[in-house]
Amino acid sequence: MYTATAGIALPTTIIGSLPRPGWYVQNLGRRDFREAMVDRVYREQYLDAVSTYLRDQEVAGLDIVTDGDCRFDADVAGHNWFSYAPLHMEGFAGARPYRVQGGLAGIPHKPGHILHDVLETRIMPDLVGAVGRGNLQYVAIWKAAQRLTTKPVKFGTITPELIAMAVRDLHYKDLRKAILAISDALNAELHELADAGCKVIQMEEPQIHLLAAKGLVDKVLNADFMVEVFNNTVRGLRGKSEIWCHTCWGNPAAQRLFAKQPSYAPALEALNRVDADVLTFETCSSGGMDLEAIGKRIRDKKVCIGVVDHHTLQVETPDQVATLVRKALNHIPAERLVLGSDCGMGREGMSRRHAYYKIVSIVLGTNIVRRELGLPEAPCLAADERFSMVGAEK
User: Fold this and answer.
1) How far is Cα 204 from Cα 159, in angstroms, rounded to an integer?
2) pLDDT of res. 107
3) Which long-range contacts (CB under 8 A, 24 or more apart) does 221-228 make?
4) 46-55, 63-72, 103-112, 173-182: least confidently modelled range
5) Is the pTM of this model over 0.85?
6) For 390, phi and psi rounded to 5 degrees?
7) What pLDDT score does 1 carry?
8) How far apart are CA 234 and CA 275, in angstroms?
């Protein structure tokens, strides 16, 4: 159900995370979010950071905003994106450092590579009992942001298979059962979130495209089961909220995971079967190489393409953004096209200023194309020349 993008010409957004302000030094850790919000220092820093994230996006002129993934801790390579859910769900306990054979979601880089640090700092709980929602607190986290803006706040969550693949299963001892148990728990949590009024729920990184890129197929890790898991996790939600399926090629510490840019082409048939309203694709980093294939295969869902790259500090110009939007419009009709970032920009990747001006470029570049098509433009206070502190010489 299109509750957020309906009625907006070429809507703009970002995927999720944003760089932390330097003064936001508190971490949630294993605490319950509501309990942590009793701590006046944590509460002040958290709410101030969320307000800053939202205001930057509003000043830039985005149509759909995020809370910058403010709940995630400041850790190496943004690992808390993986660990937040198992650290707060029932059925998980302990703290186990990564082992080479200890989890399917590891990246086997050797010492001397920046991504080896990701392995050294990947400490996850074990799966020790029946999985339950625990204290994820998605509703409270979303409300903390939504009450600070009139724009819809998109809320994102990791997918079940990534949680199951990243932990040691001492309870189910069956990857399929573990994934489905996590899926059922997340579905219950997300229904409460939708019932609270969240207009956009984003499921992040179903492994459909990554399995295809890596050539991994077995009786559990295969496209058909990944589609089944996605659809089970969002079961019953599309009648309540706008459901997004986010895909990208990874960004721990803003690093590329593949020596050669993979193609989405082998995964498009399966992605077209997920029960989502919007599919997101990392397209800026590849120069839009898959846009034609995406346009041919994805015909009923809306498509959000990345028009700024989360891996690089070079801020794309509005003209560069507009060029990629025009390229997309050759294959995807304007009424089904959404513009955003390739992925989140906050996983130890860049400064706040770099991220802010990438957001501004998303809006300014989209406005160029809106103007060409005779569509309403979004106000971009960030680019209003009246408020420049650089005055004209008299």
Assistant:
1) 6
2) 56
3) 221/104, 221/161, 221/175, 223/267, 223/270, 224/270, 225/176, 226/161, 226/270, 227/270, 227/273, 227/274
4) 103-112
5) yes
6) -90, 110
7) 87
8) 7
